[in-house]
Design goal:
By secondary structure, the protein is of the alpha/beta class. It folds into three domains: 93-191 and 413-515 and 555-623, 3-Layer(aba) Sandwich (Rossmann fold); 196-408 and 678-682, 3-Layer(aba) Sandwich (Dimethylsulfoxide Reductase, domain 2); 698-811, Barwin-like endoglucanases. The strands form ten sheets. The chain has a six-stranded mixed beta sheet with strand order 6-5-18-17-16-7, with helices on both faces. A six-stranded mixed beta barrel has the order 25-32-29-31-30-33. Strands 12-9-8-14-15 form a five-stranded parallel beta sheet, with helices on both faces. Helix 7 packs across helix 27 (557-569).
């Protein structure tokens, strides 16, 4: 029988440090995953559920977006994937009786771990203005309340519609249609805080905002550079792919301020070598780089390659550069002008070591660079990623086997949501196709990204906030500002599977709409429905849950959105529109790209004489026409619309049957075609940037613990880093601890310093001595998100700079 949820929050006084690991996974990971599964699901349910994870006839793991291989193991999940499944498939329940017992003030006093551990939400709930408790509400009344609030807006831009990466393609497509039917492009999503910098840099340089490699390319690579990423905690299934690459002769370079156990040695629990023979060494070289020094590292690699080619020849792929790229000369001149001493200062790595890494690149037959938040969440993140592309272009490492760019996404469908149109700056191609398919005119004015949405709520220009999944309060920067902003709106709506902090920091009124998860059986229209997701490598496959839902009348995300659409737009029952896009008007659309670097459409204007005049506040000339009840009853009809609107999804239904995978077009990967202004890949000249750390201060990066996925806290430990029993710890170089006048174990407040002069304080953190570069520190989020200034964002992409926070330490009074 599963254990009951906890009655108390994490006791930070019990935190202790011991046993830092130099090896990851192995039998201990299996045992820990099974322990969590048993606690949440019980033995029988655990077996039933885990054997269906990532199987062709099962459901997609609600964790990370790492792709599955064609041939799959019977246990196709990792430790953190098992935890994610257990959290969703838990038998713990949050019922109306729970909300009657716990006031909203009491719930606000609990931490993220306690809230998440209470279990699955079962019934729609509403918090009336001035009320002390949520109360139950019927589905019809709850959805009517949402629709009425949206209809009552003076301007559709007064509504904000957030999306997390867990939402299916089908739900995301309907959601963006709802939002654009209302008349706004206010569609911020978790990409804004994660890989927006990747999308901006890759679209500008390669013409597509996604990676250019497949899982087979990972296996075939001669060299893999893993930068700003911790696969052992964030994408553990990636480790088996890296192991296979090593078995095929690959070298791996790990680039990170912290030594991460999984990239030192990996024990695959599904092989005798992993269980009995000590596992596999993964990283051949560990580059312990200073925070924000990654651009300098890739400029150093490029500088070395250029110098050796000029001296000896045979290093660069001059044919590829001539035929497939532009901008080489300005890039070469920019890099040549940077002195080696500055590259050393920026990285904290000796010139000899920088050249040693560059030599690995020079001698590599095919190179892939993988990265995650460590590269994307800096002010100069876009410039850094441009320089990653520059290095790969020098040797033609785009569009050939075993080579390319590999931004590793977090949530399992965050990339799919963007493909479906969850983007505040949609391309004209997408909007024109949407107009034709649904016989309306979508708004063209750009909407708010995540940071802009927070500002709008803070400033009173947004009155309704709706979130399709996620934990907006805990995921976003500048926590105190975000909480005040949400309290400023009239209504907050959360479509959720579990309780989190976004349910207890609310608008004047709040509605919780519980929804099915990936593990739940979804029966609509008399039959079981399936949804689809897209992984990090542009592969789309289906997912079908197996478990009985937490409550009998629970709605799916698709059903929730479809019913709101029906209330807002009416229904064209019995009217099914045939696709109106022909081959000439179809284009390769990428929704990770800023519109100013997108392809401009030369398709003829669409006749819209049947539409009404646009109202002054920007509402569409008409509403989208669809049979919403039919779409709710049969998700295959939604996929027909997707195929009509988004290129690459032709024969969608047939191509995902029987567990098959649909691979989306990828110009750079498929045929070295680049949807840039020149039709070629673009070298860019980027002035070198890196953070300056004032005297007596530290540069803080926010990170995850191992018992965590994004904002979901699974437990109290980070066993690979040797931290147990708590989360409020600050990892600091021992020499910095001494220099700043502290000793390990001291309790301090962290105070961030930003040019606006406002004090942002995270209280009561225990100093832990850790191997990190001088001047750098690390601590877990969401506890330290309060320190990230709302206006401290990456140039171009607007991503919060959560890896570059200047802090001072203040001793707690005795």
């Amino acid at each position: 029988m599963a254990l009951k949820p906890p009655k108390a929050d994490i006791d930070e006084a019990r935190v202790h440090v011991s046993g830092r690991k130099k090896v990851a996974v192995g039998v201990p990971a299996v045992l820990h995953a099974l322990k969590i599964s048993q606690e949440q699901m019980g033995v029988k349910r655990s077996i039933q559920t885990l054997l269906a994870v990532n199987q062709k006839d099962g459901f997609d793991c609600p964790g990370c977006a790492w792709p599955e291989e064609e041939k799959r193991h019977i246990a196709e999940f990792c430790e953190n994937g098992a935890k994610a499944v257990a959290e969703e498939a838990t038998i713990r329940r949050v019922t109306p009786e729970f909300f009657a017992e716990h006031s909203i003030d009491e719930l606000r006093g609990h931490d993220d771990w306690w809230l998440g551990q209470q279990g699955r939400l079962t019934h729609p709930m509403i918090l009336d203005e001035g009320a002390t408790h949520y109360r139950p509400i019927s589905w019809d009344d709850a959805l009517r309340e949402v629709a009425d609030a949206l209809r009552a807006l003076d301007d559709p831009n007064e509504a904000i519609f957030y999306t997390s990466g867990r939402t299916s393609n089908e739900a995301a497509f309907l959601y963006q249609l709802l939002v654009r039917g209302l008349g706004t492009n206010n569609l911020p999503d978790c990409s804004n805080m994660c890989h927006e910098s990747s999308g901006s840099a890759l679209t500008e340089t390669l013409g597509i905002g996604k990676g250019t490699v497949s899982i087979e390319d990972i296996h075939q690579a001669d060299l893999l550079i893993i930068a700003g990423q911790n696969p052992g905690t964030n994408h553990p299934r990636m480790l088996s792919a890296l192991e296979k690459a090593k078995d095929n002769g690959a070298s791996i370079v790990a680039v990170n301020p912290l030594p991460e156990a999984a990239l030192i040695r990996y024990k695959n629990p599904q092989t005798p070598r992993g269980v009995l023979l000590g596992g596999k060494k993964l990283a051949d070289e560990f580059v312990q780089i200073r925070l924000g020094g990654d651009q300098a590292l890739f400029q150093a690699i490029g500088k070395h390659l250029l110098e050796v080619d000029e001296r000896e020849g045979g290093v660069l792929d001059h044919v590829f550069i001539q035929e497939h790229t532009t901008g080489f000369a300005p890039y070469a001149a920019e890099v040549a002008a940077v002195p080696w001493r500055e590259l050393v200062a920026a990285t904290g790595v000796p010139e000899k070591a920088l050249r040693r890494v560059a030599e690995r690149v020079r001698t590599s037959k095919s190179t892939i660079v993988c990265w995650a938040m460590g590269l994307t969440q800096h002010k100069h993140a876009v410039a850094t990623l441009r320089d990653v592309v520059n290095v790969l272009l020098l040797q033609g490492n785009i569009g050939r086997p075993g080579a390319g760019v590999c931004p590793v996404r977090g949530h399992s469908n965050v990339q799919g949501d963007r493909t479906m149109g969850i983007y505040e700056k949609p391309s004209e191609h997408f909007l024109a196709a949407l107009d034709r398919e649904f016989a309306f005119t979508a708004p063209r004015e750009h909407g708010h990204d995540t940071v802009e949405a927070i500002r709008a709520m803070r400033d009173g220009s947004a009155r309704v906030f709706m979130a399709m999944g996620g934990n907006f309060v805990s995921a976003t920067p500048d926590t105190n500002v975000v909480e005040a902003a949400l309290r400023n709106v009239d209504l907050t709506v959360q479509v959720s599977t579990k309780l989190n902090r976004s349910h207890v920091v609310t608008g004047k009124r709040a509605i919780i709409l519980p929804t099915l998860g990936r593990t739940d059986r979804d029966v609509r229209g008399g039959g079981e429905q399936r949804v689809t997701v897209e992984d990090s490598m542009s592969a789309v496959h289906s997912s079908r849950g197996r478990l009985v839902p937490p409550s009998a009348d629970m709605l799916s995300e698709v059903a929730i959105v479809a019913r709101i659409c029906a209330q807002l737009f009416g229904s064209d029952a019995g009217s099914h529109f045939e696709p109106q896009i022909d081959d000439e008007s179809a284009v390769d659309v990428d929704f990770d790209q800023p519109e100013h670097v997108g392809i401009q459409s030369d398709a003829p204007a669409v006749e819209r004489t049947h539409l009404e005049r646009r109202e002054p506040h920007g509402r569409p000339q008409s509403v989208p026409r669809a049979d919403w009840a039919a779409l709710e009853a049969d998700y295959a009809l939604i996929r027909r619309h997707i195929a009509a609107v988004i290129p690459g999804f032709d024969d969608f239904e047939q191509r995902i049957e029987k567990g098959r995978t649909l691979f989306l077009p990828n110009g750079p990967r498929d045929d070295r075609s680049f949807a840039t202004a020149t039709g070629k890949a673009v070298f860019t000249a980027n002035p070198l940037e890196y953070p300056f750390i004032p005297h007596g201060r530290l540069l803080l990066q926010t990170i995850r613990s191992h018992d965590q996925y994004n904002t979901t806290i699974y437990g109290k430990d980070d066993r690979y880093r040797g931290i147990h029993g708590g989360r409020r710890v600050l990892m600091v170089n021992p020499k910095d601890i001494q220099k700043l006048g502290f000793v390990e174990g001291d309790i301090v407040d962290l105070v961030s310093e930003w040019r606006d002069g406002l004090e942002r304080r995270a209280e009561e953190f225990r100093i832990v001595s850790y191997s990190t570069p001088r001047g750098n520190a690390a601590a877990y989020y969401p506890e330290t998100n309060v320190l990230v200034p709302l206006d401290s964002t990456a140039d171009i992409s607007g991503t919060p700079t959560s890896k570059s926070v200047i802090v001072r330490l203040e001793r707690r009074a005795a």
